[in-house]
Specification:
There is one protein chain. Strand 8 and strand 9 form a beta hairpin. Helix 3 packs parallel to helix 4. The chain is of the alpha+beta class and about 325 residues long. Strands 7, 8, 9, 10, 11, 12, 13 and 14 form an 8-stranded antiparallel β-sheet that branches. The protein has a 5-stranded mixed β-sheet with strand order 2-1-3-5-4. Strands 6-15 form a two-stranded antiparallel sheet. The longest helix has about 35 residues.
């Protein structure tokens, strides 16, 4: 083969390789939400290490009415690592070997991807590594999943949010399947119909002093959201309204949205004097420059469906919010 033919053959191989890379990227992005491939040999998976992985990464999601795992785990032997599993979006690789390590790699085999490597010379070393890094692993995978979902939204047909922008001076990406249900002076309710149910997003703002960072914050948030339900969110039957379910206390944590301190509250709602209920996630964002707390909440009604990924959709949309500068 002369040099010209060799060069043409090389270019052809390079072109094929690039095309294959694009397919890998597409496959990774379109995979199941919140699914993690665990690359681990059966001996470890069926013992203490596997138990620890399941207890940490398949623990029940807080705030849902029935038990659903944080991640759906799929186990595969280590020998498959170099095969088709490298297309997975989220991978945890666990090995028993002389070298002890913990590291997280982004886009190691394809894009987008998070790959967690855990190894140790003993079961105890591996267990210690999982125990020490479980929260970080969950955060990195969840943050990556949210970004993937937000990118999908950007490529869909988006809702005209001019009313939201005008009322609250914010912008965010909302699929156009969400429709305006009602609005008030400082309130907006959007709803998306799904099979046998619906997803809702509500927006409202309250004075900055309405919620204090103290042990009573969750009670205050609950009281405020119940007052919003009384004003705006009613059922088809007379004298029904949305309230926070009292049987279980909501879960409160702190996070940041658009670099602003935020109270995240998860729990269950019910329709007073009716049978409807479901989970909610409430983000009370402390917008100090504008002397307000902006509340964006997502809730769903889907009695015949698993709700983890429905609530994940709402969370991803909410976390796309950006605060605009005053004109």
């Amino acid at each position: 083969m002369n040099k010209a033919h060799f060069f043409l053959a090389f270019l052809a191989l390079l072109f094929i390789s690039c095309n294959n890379r694009e397919i890998k990227t597409s496959n990774a992005q379109s995979g199941p939400t919140n699914e993690v491939s665990v690359i681990i040999d059966d001996q470890l998976w069926n013992g203490e290490v596997g138990d620890s992985i399941r207890n940490k990464f398949a623990a029940p999601v807080l705030g849902l009415p029935q038990e659903e795992p944080v991640f759906t785990l799929k186990q595969y032997p280590v020998k498959l690592l170099e095969g088709f599993m490298t297309n997975s979006r989220n991978i945890i690789v666990v090995k028993k070997e002389s070298k002890s390590q913990f590291r997280i790699e982004n886009n190691e085999y394809t894009k987008p991807q998070v790959v967690v490597h855990i190894s140790g010379s003993s079961v105890l070393q591996i267990l210690d590594s999982i125990q020490s890094n479980d929260s970080l692993i969950i955060k990195r995978i969840k943050d990556s999943e949210i970004k993937v979902f937000q990118e999908k939204i950007k490529h869909d047909s988006l809702l005209d949010i001019s009313k939201i922008k005008k009322k609250f001076n914010i912008k965010l990406n909302v699929p156009n399947k969400y429709k305006l249900v009602s609005s008030g002076r400082k309130f907006i309710w959007l709803k998306k119909e799904i099979t046998s149910g619906n997803l809702s997003l509500i927006f409202y703002q309250i004075p900055f002093s309405s919620i204090k960072d103290n042990p009573s914050a969750v009670k205050r948030i609950t009281k405020i959201r119940d007052s919003i339900g009384r004003l705006y969110i009613h059922g088809a039957v007379a004298r029904t309204r949305m309230v926070t379910e009292t049987a279980f206390s909501p879960y409160l944590s702190k996070t940041k949205i658009y670099n602003k301190a935020t109270f995240e509250t998860k729990g269950n709602w019910e329709l007073l004097n009716d049978f409807m209920n479901g989970p909610f996630v409430n983000y009370s964002i402390l917008d100090e420059p504008n002397h307000r707390i902006l509340v964006i909440e997502g809730f769903c009604y889907a009695p015949s469906k698993q709700k983890r990924d429905l609530m994940f959709e709402l969370e991803s949309i909410i976390k796309s919010v950006q605060f605009l500068k005053k004109k």
